[in-house]
Write a structure and sequence with these properties.
The structure holds two protein chains of two kinds.
Chain A: E1 4-17, E2 20-33, E3 37-41, H1 48-56, E4 64-73, E5 76-77, H2 83-92, E6 94-97, H3 111-122, H4 127-140, H5 146-149, H6 159-171, E7 177-181, H7 189-206, E8 209-214, H8 217-223, E9 226-231, E10 234-240, H9 241-246, H10 251-259, E11 309-312, E12 315-317, H11 322-331
Parallel strand pairs in A: 3-8, 3-9, 6-7, 7-8
Antiparallel strand pairs in A: 1-2, 1-4, 4-5, 9-10, 10-12, 11-12
Chain B: E1 15-25, E2 37-48, E3 53-57, H1 64-71, E4 79-84, E5 87-88, H2 94-103, E6 104-107, H3 111-114, H4 121-131, H5 137-150, H6 167-179, E7 185-189, H7 197-214, E8 217-221, H8 225-231, E9 234-239, E10 242-248, H9 249-254, H10 259-267
Parallel strand pairs in B: 3-8, 3-9, 6-7, 7-8
Antiparallel strand pairs in B: 1-2, 1-4, 4-5, 9-10
Classes of the chains: A alpha/beta, B alpha/beta.
Bound molecules: adenosine-5'-triphosphate, adenosine-5'-diphosphate, iron/sulfur cluster (SF4) (2 copies) and magnesium ion (2 copies).
Chain lengths: 344, 332
Amino acid sequence: MSDVILSVNNLITEFSTDEGRVRAVDDVSFSIKEGETLGIVGESGCGKSVTALSIMRLLPQPIGQIMGGEILLEGQNLVDLPLEQMRKIRGARIGMVFQEPMTALNPVHTIGRQLTEVILLHKKISKDKALREGIEMLDKVGIPAPDIRMTEYPHQLSGGMRQRVVIAMALACQPKLLIADEPTTALDVTIQAQILELIKDLQKQMGMSVVLITHDLGVIAETSSSVVVMYAGKVAERGSVYDVFDRPSHPYTKGLLESIPRLDTPPKSKLTIIPGMVPGLLDMPKGCRFENRCPYRKDSCLVAPPAIEAIAKEHDVACYEWQELKRNTVAGGDSANFKLSAVA
Amino acid sequence: MSVVPLQAKSIDPILSVRDLKMHFPVKEGIFMRTGKFNKAVDGINFDIMPGETLGLVGESGCGKSTLGRCIARLYQPTAGEISFEGTDIATLGRKDMMPFRRDIQMIFQDPMESLNSRHTVGQILEEPFQVHNIGDKAYRKKRVVELLDLVGLPARSVTRYPFEFSGGQRQRIGIARSIALNPKLIICDEPVSALDVSIQSQILNLLIDLQKEFKLSYLFIAHDLAVVKHISDRIAIMYLGKIVESGEGESIYRTARHPYTQSLISAIPVPDPHHVAHRQILVGDVPSPINPPSGCTFHTRCPKVMDVCKEKVPVLNGDEQPVSCHLYEQPN
Ligand SMILES: Nc1ncnc2c1ncn2[C@@H]1O[C@H](COP(=O)(O)OP(=O)(O)OP(=O)(O)O)[C@@H](O)[C@H]1O
Ligand SMILES: Nc1ncnc2c1ncn2[C@@H]1O[C@H](COP(=O)(O)OP(=O)(O)O)[C@@H](O)[C@H]1O
Ligand code: SF4
Ligand code: SF4
Ligand SMILES: [Mg+2]
Ligand SMILES: [Mg+2]
């Protein structure tokens, strides 16, 4: 069995806002093995980025706080690590790539300066050596004429090139873990294909693990070996990509997979929908958070949120009715199909 | 000259676009003039039939929105013809354009940008009737409630403001406004690109329902080919201001001919872990439309590039599935 590199256990993260305290991440757990790619998928606002920021200890201060749980990086708990030590871990042991490359780049400094700064922060080497390593890294992420690019500013590069630079910066010190938060969402599919391929190649070369956050189920299916489906701050389902895509066992996962138009669905056919929308953090239902949109809902779902439970080896689901859903799916019946639900 | 094929040749198209160009002058330097042009739309031809959806795909900056904005006459095109039900509207002035504004509507990616944030939903939906002087107060109020119902929003929404709604609901408001005056053609510019998957299918279903009910024609712009293929009858692929291939959605997807279309389709991640991708990864970025490459503008990234491609501009050729690529040129 390969080693677990990161394990997040019962993470709770809250924000204090004008309207009160909100719990953006509520009892989230998952783990990732060495060399593995784990996908986190869910719609906007479900807590993907807050989870990533919690791991990096980069929550906006003072409003964002980790209120519970642990984040173990190779066994070391990051949650109560002094910030000084955390700063050393960032970049050296965990690299991070964000959706918008400009958030990670300083517009007034050259690419070269920013890249060498990152390297010098973690390595005791000469400026010259850092410069050479920087050029090598740019070459590695597929930037043509890397020595010239080092003298340029972020705005002189295209979106895809900028994301390559950010990846170069994140990986300059060969971290064991890369957290990529929607790294290709702002890019065209053709450029997305380039960047995903690049991450895959570098991962193989460097043997690192990747947490890939996205809202695109296609990207997950293509890159990840296991997946965490989040809904409204909680884990709805967790398992290998085969388990989750072949046997979705949470009504939300099932609904999502059925509602995406695919290249082989008949044109203008009615798409399955998930009615309604995600409740706001301030008015979360007392019971299951998917309750207002769920065709499988029973009265008992409204009392308390379902706990996540193992339904097969390494396949976990947080739903009281997963057995009902399974019966329904196996029978091919659609008594509780999304199509029959009213549009909100 | 070959144009996008007609679906039913006996019916007249509702929209015919011929050799349409939109060249933006490039402003640079202290004199703010360089004599250069950004050829955002550079010689486009196509037809849309009544009740039909033409999907338009291509990478960012290839000119999709500019093309849409020309047809809605938010821009005055540099050259070419936009024939709507037989009248060329490409050069019509403000006043002459007025009646056509009722018939041609537009929906945007971010409805917030097009909805006046200080107006209530009721005011927003009444506005088109005021602008075109249609009906009295009572009629307008009745229509507003009807429109809300059509797009699946409760009648009580009239007194609320756009910011009180979610992204998907705001798109419903944008759609309600676009159909207020019973238009014939709606230009949908990335209407679901900013929405979550679970909301996207709601909006796509709504657009398909409305099309059937009101016999609407759509020009549907998006970068997600799976979405475009779902909603469209025919698809046109754009690259650097030109259509490089077009045809029926199914045949574009199954038998793409242009190397760019092939790469584009192969780049789409398929939501099935069993699927084995046969990817043709394109190298590099889209070149600048200000200094486009010579010959075939795709030649800098084309995996099948030949010598002739660097010199000779290919023309869109073929009947069922026209393509502009030297690989398919008939020797004559
Ligand atoms: N009003 C304008 N003035 C000058 N140039 C413009 C204007 N509008 C668009 N352009 C340029 O025209 C080209 C095409 O832009 P357009 O917005 O049509 O692309 P698009 O295909 O819609 O891209 P996206 O997928 O990013 O929406 C770009 O190079 C853009 O910078
Ligand atoms: N700085 C913040 N202050 C208050 N609430 C926040 C902040 N950042 C995120 N949230 C809330 O936390 C929830 C999860 O957000 P996020 O993790 O960014 O979602 P996503 O899954 O789209 O990445 C959302 O409801 C969001 O509004
Ligand atoms: S617990 Fe109940 S409401 Fe929640 S997803 Fe399961 S069936 Fe639906
Ligand atoms: S004309 Fe040449 S460069 Fe252009 S798409 Fe065809 S083969 Fe490629
Ligand atoms: Mg996010
Ligand atoms: Mg656009």
